[in-house]
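Figure S7 source data.
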Amino acid sequence: MTRDNLVSEVMNMKNEGCRFVTMSTVLTAEDAVDVLYHFEKDFEVTHLRLADQPLAEPVPSISGVYFCAMLAENELRDLFGMRFTGLVLDFNRTLFLDEEVTTVPLVNNCKITPTN
Amino acid sequence: MLYLTPSVLKNMVKKPATRNYPFAVREPFDHYRGELVINPEDCILCGSCMRKCPSLCITVDKKAETWECDPYACIYCGHCVSVCPTHCLSMKNVHRAPAPQKVLMSEKGHPPQKKKKAAEAE
Amino acid sequence: MFKSLIKNSRAKSPWIMHFDCGSCNGCDIEVLACLTPLYDVERFGVVNVGNPKHADVLLVTGTVNHRNKKVLKNLYDQMPEPKAVIAIGACGATGGVFRDAYNVVGGVDKVIPVDVYVPGCPAKPEAIIDGVVEGLKKFQQKVEQAG
Amino acid sequence: MSNLLSILILLPVLSALACYIVRSGAVRRLVVTVTGGVLSVASVALLLRGSFEAWSPGTLFGLSWDLIITVLDFALLGVILYYGFKLKSLFIQIFTLAQIVLLSVFEFIIVEHVAVPAFRADNLSLIMVLIVSIIGSLICIFGLPYMNRHEKHLNLQKTKQPEFFFYLVIFLGAMNGLVLANNILWLYFFFEVTSLCSFRLIGHDGTKVAVANATRALWMNSFGGLGFVVGMMLAYNAVETLSIAALLTAGPQGALALTGVALICFAGFVKAAQVPFQSWLLGAMVAPTPVSALLHSSTMVKAGVYIVLRLAPAYQGTLLSDTIAICGAFTFVACAALAIGQSNGKKILAYSTISNLGLIVACAGLNTPLAITAAIMLIIFHAVSKSLLFLCVGTIEQEIGSRDIEDMRGLYERMPRTSFLAITGVLTMLLPPFGVLLGKWMAIEAAAGSIWVIIMLALGSALTVVYWARWGGGMMGSRKPGQPSESLPLLINLPLMLLCIGAVGLSAATPAIYANLIQPMLSSAALAVNTTTGSLGAFAVYGLYIALGLGLFVAFRAGRRAPVLRKVGPYMGGANLGEDGSFNGPMNQPVAFGAGNLYLSELFGEQKLTMWVNIAGAALLVLMIGGGL
Amino acid sequence: MARTVIPFGPQHPVLPEPIHLKLVVEDEIVKEAVPALGYVHRGLEMLVAKRDYHQMIQVCERVCGICSMIHAVCYSQTIEEMMGIEVPKRAQVLRVIWSELHRMHSHLLWLGLFADAFGFEALFMQIWKIRERILDINEATAGNRVIVSVNVIGGVRADLNPEQRDWIESELKIIEKELKEIQSTVLNDYTVKARTVGKGILTYEQAWELGAAGPTLRGSGVKSDMRMLKYGGYKLLDFEPVVETAGDSWARAAVRFREVLQSIDLVRQAIAKIPRGDRDLAAKVKGNPEGEAFMRVEQPRGECVYYIKASGKKNLDRMRIRTPTFANVPPLLAMVPNCELADVPVIVLSIDPCISCTER
Amino acid sequence: MKYVILAFIGLVVAPLAGGLLAGIDRRITARLQSRQGPPIRQALYDVLKLFGKEGLALNKWQIICAWVYLIAAALACTLFFLQSDLLLIFFVQAVGAVFLVMGAMAGRSPYSQVGAQRELIQVLTYEPLLVLVFVCMYLAAGSFNISDILAVESPLLAQLPLAYIVLTYILTIKLRKSPFDFSTSHHGHQELVKGVLTEYSGPYLALTEVAHWYETVLLLGVCALFWTTNWLWMAVLLMATYFLELVIDNTMARMTWRWMLKYVWGIGLAMSVVNLIWLYAG
Ligand code: NFV
Ligand code: SF4
Ligand code: SF4
Ligand code: SF4
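Tokens for the predicted iron/sulfur cluster complex:
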């Protein structure tokens, strides 16, 4: 799966009647992550993987397809400093964190870049 | 409506369920992990407890021969007790008393062979 | 006479407010359990008021983090004098297991003065009752000092 | 006597003309202020002279005044008709034409012109004169600086004040005439004058809404006028005299006469904006504040209840009396309920006025001495408090640019003096020991015997508490030490102050008022039944007054401690940002304080409720008039 | 019409935990509700860098003191799966027992708070009185009332002796009896129903689409319970999920109430299934985990997801916890608007929010 | 002399009795919940302690309102013991109710603002019913004066059973018991955090508490008027009524004001009307 077909793939999952479980992210390099999207149908879990996604590049948001992904994406915004385009409710790094936290928590403590 | 009425009326006539702590203290359960105590005599400063402690609240300093634990950071999980090779750590089954100041438990340990008197300090 | 009546009543009617300041709920539910039939702290006149403006004693459970430290401070400021603060659990005292996480400031005493620490993870209801009793002692001392 | 009466009735006319002709602001100021003063003094003088049975003015340049009035009457109807055509209002045209025709029939065919004393005054009339002259004058004086600011606000090129004060001042004269009239034709004349004046004043600003509302006021009142004419004819038919006094002493007379009385009462209902005619008074809100204050407190609507109350002996003990009581009580509840759904301050005042008028009408309908006492008390105190409130709202509106009670939240911060007066005004409207409440209390005692009325009174008084309390409470607020208070012109402050003092002080005088003014009247021929004094013992009022006064004193002294208290913000779940009620909201964004009242729109929403109220009100009215038969 | 802006929380007596809702109400009808989280966020997932994978068990337990046991189970199962450890049957069954005890105490705790949310103090007291028995069982068997800390990678640390088993059985009988006594109050009382029926409706489709979990999902008629995956000791037990179809607060309460009774049954079954001979409590653990694993278990509040990546070191690379409340927040946001202000606590509590789980 | 004693009872003894009653109330409530409960004098301790605390208020209006609330309640209670006119007492206590609301509205606090609005709804609910109950008593006794009511030969309860039920509704609202405890309640676990009282603290909270005691005594006094012929039965009636209140408090959830307005008005008005008609007919 790639960044470009992400939303359409997710759309497919939705059309198949899957429930969005959550998404997970894991650091694969200094500045790249794998993003996993987990879906469930009839107790079967399907994982979609967006591999080696550079942190600096924004990812298309799937919150337009699954509203509930909003929370997970905002969380990643906080914890990994990832950006999402088209997020329906964007807390802009204030879901969990305040100004006092000056690092991106899960990315080897690199300093945060000023938010836009 | 009023389904609870029989219950509350029953409560009214029965003795209240209240345990009259602190005037009457209930017999504690044996396994309750209430307070971590150390018998410094037996501590050989091996440091396993320090390595296993999930709260990282034990500090064993071999050079200074001290064993220190912050009881206010300890989460009373009891892992240190189960890993201690000399069984010098144990758990009391009553809780540690609240106090107006935080104190550090700090004990003189005894590396193997050598023997020293332990002093208790606050 | 009225003065001494008031003074005597102080220790007999500690109204508590409980603030969950990022606790894992372990200590939290134990605080709540104190109100329930088996422990029933109302025996000592304790009422859980839930409003800083009515409270005498602030029970804080949990670690302080960057967001709730302001809340904690606000609440403390809104309590009328004389007041006491009791920090409950390992988290309240020092930050507990989470001391070294990035969003944790530490124990309650990093933000407001604490009068009594109740150790435990979670602290037992009995320990909390002891803590409140201990807190009332300090409370009385404070009042006496203040005249 | 003659001097006093002419001062009270003719001086306003002359002053009004002076205002109209001499278009200078300074002269207007002088004329209005002096007229106000003279009127007030004259009214007191008249009161001191006491009631009188009959007095006729004689002739003017050899013409009998009766004739002059007749001529003026037709002239007046002609003017109204002219406006009817100008405004293309079919209703006005029909009603006025009908009046002209019927009146001609009445005057030229039916009535045998035996001389009937034109004026007569019992204590009720004297009280009304006092209210009209003093409160009305204060309102006019308040109007002077108010209208200046008002016009500045509207950016008028050419001032319209001469006209405005012309109608405003003439109104007072007409009211005085109305309450003193004994000849029913005179009464009718003054009645029509007030209709016309109110029409002109409501439409004063000339905006589309103003004109529309003025038109509605006129057609409704013409309808009332028509009722008056028919009623007059029927009543004359039975008692064969134009003298009201004679009509009253005669007591209830047969079905037809009673229907006549009912129709005159109907005219009073319209004038007093009882449901389903409340809409014209609400529409009158578009006019500048002095107009609303005047219409609502001392003139116009009071003319309506005055007529109903005046006629009380004529329907005593009849079914009509009961239905009037029910109609009044229904208006009381319905408008109190409607007021709950409102946030527009003036509308609340309007509904409250109507509601209180309903209470007065209900008392008239109950028709026991106690009830009549209650009615008179209510007329007095309602006039004072309501004018105070209207003037306060006007002042506030000019200052903050809104008449919404939500915008007045915490007004004490900005306008401590005015809001203090307004809060006092609110309190005098609903709490003991103030007069309005004493009136209500007596009304409830009087109504205890009639089940439907009492239920409606009970509901209505609770509803009243709701809309007043939240308004009064909402205006309270915090002030920082040293914050400057508002500065207002003297001619605005003075009437406000006087009215406020009046509202508070007069209440203390209730026992005196009762003993000296009301009780003698009740035992007089017109209203006497067996005199059971109400339970308004002097002790209760004085004791209450002293106790609550002391209490307030203690409370205010305690309140003075406020500045030394430690400043903490309100409870915000701990998310406070400062002390002004703002808090740290989602995404760490500050959120400002916001509060709104409960308007219970699903229960008291204006549109839906109005429809039901109107239907029920109309049904009750039909019942009432039919009940006479 | 002017609107009142109410800061609901972070400190608020009916919210057991700090969460902030900016409520905009008009005539006490909620027109707008925006949440603010982060008052309990500690940053637990990052602690993997500072603790080894054994110590992490204790940290995971303290994600939440209410569902601590099952967090630990889920974590250990994930590690065990990664390392291919076979957990002894006895340990598996014991895990089920404590898990179900946790579920019971969690549900009862919630039921009490829920009663408190609609001002039914006596019911709250009654329920919490019953709940104390479960905590006593925990304390006696595992050494702590709430956070039992019995799990280790590969198994458990504590055992139940026969007397304890009998004692548990007898306690369960009392609990069951006392629960039956309040059953009609919880499910049929007029005032309770008036406050819960039709409040916060979540339809089947909405629940599925918004990714709800646990009783919130089952209250809307979806038959979804992770225990149907038959993980751990559950493969030995008879189990049928509790489902209600109304989708309102009452349905969710009913699901939880019936689940307590079901849990009593499960504990009984599990006690009966404790293997006789085999006394093994924990398998030996050697080496460090490596690879990726994804594990789902049923928490009291619903499906809890652990995703762990490790690369053969003592410290894990990444641990991701998706807790049920995290999944239930979006449905909550869909339920609150246009309810009455007085119903906000009821609706918020009806998903049984656990913020410390959500934010970790 | 008699009046001095009566005034003393109304002014001084009544609040103390109210305080003790509050303590008993809490004790019995605790017992109904299977708890041991506080000492009987607990409510007095609470108030005394509050007097010794630092007072916090948002502005002077709040303080004024708290005082007026207290004074009006005390006055109403005293008037009651002085055997004054029921309607007068009613209006004087309404002063207190109104000032309580206004005090809550005086500050920029959303919680007390909402509380004030709800309190108004409560006032709206019980006031007409209370007036109707008084009217029933008037019809039965021929006067609004308490001294006249005391002179009635047979217990009013016999003639006014429905009015008494209505009165218990009012009592529940006024005592702020479940299911009507939504503008404020004795325990703060409620969505409004004590609503109208949110912003009061220390001595000012104590004032409102004492005022509440006065009101309790006043209302129980009104209940007592329903059986004035025999002290014993009066006591039984009062105890039974109060115990019933406690049981209701402990067996019902808090409802919403929308429900209250519809339900209590519906039932209350219907019952009062039936009783009124009965009195008219009889
Ligand atoms: N059940 C549960 Fe948790 C977990 N995981 C969840 O939201 O309670 Ni604190
Ligand atoms: S009990 Fe647990 S936390 Fe405490 S010292 Fe031992 S290992 Fe550390
Ligand atoms: S206490 Fe035990 S484990 Fe810890 S250092 Fe001493 S001997 Fe080693
Ligand atoms: S001390 Fe322990 S139980 Fe209490 S909050 Fe902290 S982690 Fe939870």
